[in-house]
Amino acid sequence: MVSTKAPTHVPGRQRFGGLFSGDYQTFLALFGFGALFTAFENLPKLRSILFGQSDVDFPAVFGLLIVLCAIFWRGLLRRGFVWAEPAALTWMDFAGVDRRRVVVKRMWTLWLGLVVVVGYTGALVTAIGGGSRDVWIAMSALTASGAILAAVTARRTAIHGETVAPIVLAVAGLAVAAAGLGPMAVEVLAGALFVVAVAVAFGGEPVSGLGRQELVDGWNARILRAMAAVFMDPMLLIPESRPVPWLSLRRPTTLRLAWAGVLGRSRYAAASVVIACLVGAGHLAFPAVPVAPLFALGAYAALVPFVGGLGELWRNPGRKRWLGTSDWELRLVNGLMTAVLGLGWGALLGLVTLTLGVTPAWPVWLAIPLAVVAALRTATRPPMNYDVSGGAAGIQALRGVDVLVFGSVLLSVLV
After folding, report:
1. Do 196 and 243 fall into the same domain?
2. Stretches in the chain below the pLDDT threshold 50
């Protein structure tokens, strides 16, 4: 008689994330699913919000969906699912539980969430535009092939230069939108992505086989992000800078530390490029959406990771005293550095809009310096004061975002 080992449940861990517990998780799940399905009952209203009086440009929608697949692929390549709680990890090792199953299960859960987001976006926009059968098939094939490619690359250890791959996919989305290609070309692209996924699936070590130290490091980073959310400190959500050897050997100055903060976070450059492609494709696909908030939000998301070095210095008075610099010098040097990055990102966005054949009005480009100011304001936020009311604490936590929202509304009125 052969007996199979029953799956072991980690003590204290809710099954299915507490979805069927009857607690607040169940309420949030029901509310979320209800809101998602209600959108399909208000298609005319959503059409006027997204497209106005214009016809639905399905090649632009195809391009947007391809870029969306690229940005979610980039997010999955971060491999944020590789973590394990030290106590649970010790218990699993003692009980003989395979830690790989836990990591793989977490990866598939995150992967499923991304697939649902991409698939839902494609289905909703196709339903709003009244897409034909060929459009539905192309959307489904693209979502499926992109999901397969993201899964087979995220489940294995990092490949050298893999962060460039989402940029290539995003550029392919821009090409589809700019050339006005139809469902047949999208299906060919989906087939090419599937072939690449099959080729990458063989070889390499599974990421679930990483050692205890890597899992604990992932847990520590996760705890830091959770505490940042609880204490409303957005700068703690930005991971630490990687060391820059040729700068660390020299005498620290404000300019060198600013350079080190940017170069140590160069891994976010690929995400910034994909964000620029997403903003341009979104502007082309949804002509009725105000352009200024779209540009400002994209620039802010692209620049915030690179002001993490300033944020670390600003919230640590001991480091500022060690550096021996004043607050205005920190603002000036890091502001100039962020302005250069914003100028580069704005030039990239201009190249994207030129490729897509769209010409935004000139006041819209003021959203780039607006995002620079907002990012610097976020990084130089004073310590939280928890003696005030919840509303005042929320205003403190949204420092930088307040300028972004107010400026975006003002630019929308000017445009």
Report:
1. no
2. 1-7
